[in-house]
Amino acid sequence: xxxPDFKNxxxxxxxxxxxxxxxxxxxxxxxxxxxAVFEQIASAPDASKYPHIARWWEHIKSFDAKELPGDKxxxxxxxxxxxxxxxxxxxxxxxxxxxxxxxDPEAERIxxxxxxxxxxxxxxxxxxxxxxVVTFEVKPWDDETDLKAMxxxxxxxxxxxxxxxxxKYVPVGYGVNKxxxxxxxxxDKVSMDELQERVQDLEDYVQSSDIAAMQKL
Length: 217
Prior knowledge:
By secondary structure, the chain is an alpha+beta fold. Helices cover about 35% and strands about 20% of the residues. The chain has seven helices and four strands; from the N terminus they run αααααβαββαβ. It has helices at about 10-20, 30-40, 50-60, 75-80, 105-125, 145-155, 190-200; strands at about 130-140, 160-175, 175-185, 205-215. The protein has a four-stranded antiparallel sheet with strand order 2-3-1-4, with helices on one face. It is elongated and about 105 Å long.
């Protein structure tokens, strides 16, 4: 059995190109053909220069060569490299006379149209609306503040993406109760800073406001 000289840079370049779309030398599993080539490459190749060979070499290294099926002669039948070719990379090596470098204008046009259509569909796809549940607290000036009137004024604030929910009065101390109200907000539409500013504008009722808790829906 005579295999190409894998110490030859041009042979390694051709083998690198060969492994671009293959996992093994022959077929879809490791065989004696892989073992035969592995024996010719004594050490792991430079992964930066020959990434496909390096990947293949590390993989074949994990096998017990004696247990691999097939015949080593298969390697010679498959790998017919030109050892006189100059090693220069993929553009200078053509193992099987491939016409992959030839461009079909019509195929390229159809491909471009499909990419354009895909991008258009992707752009139209609605984004998921991000929402948060917020526990919002409003503190009155004192125990003489009309809490119901304060709550009505707070709930009268309208913002796109804001939904007022359940509420209750929570004791603060010294006979003062604060309004605790649950709201649901669309994150992209509602600024909590702006909401607090608008609540603070209710100067007849509101001393301060606070965000007690916030959780994403």
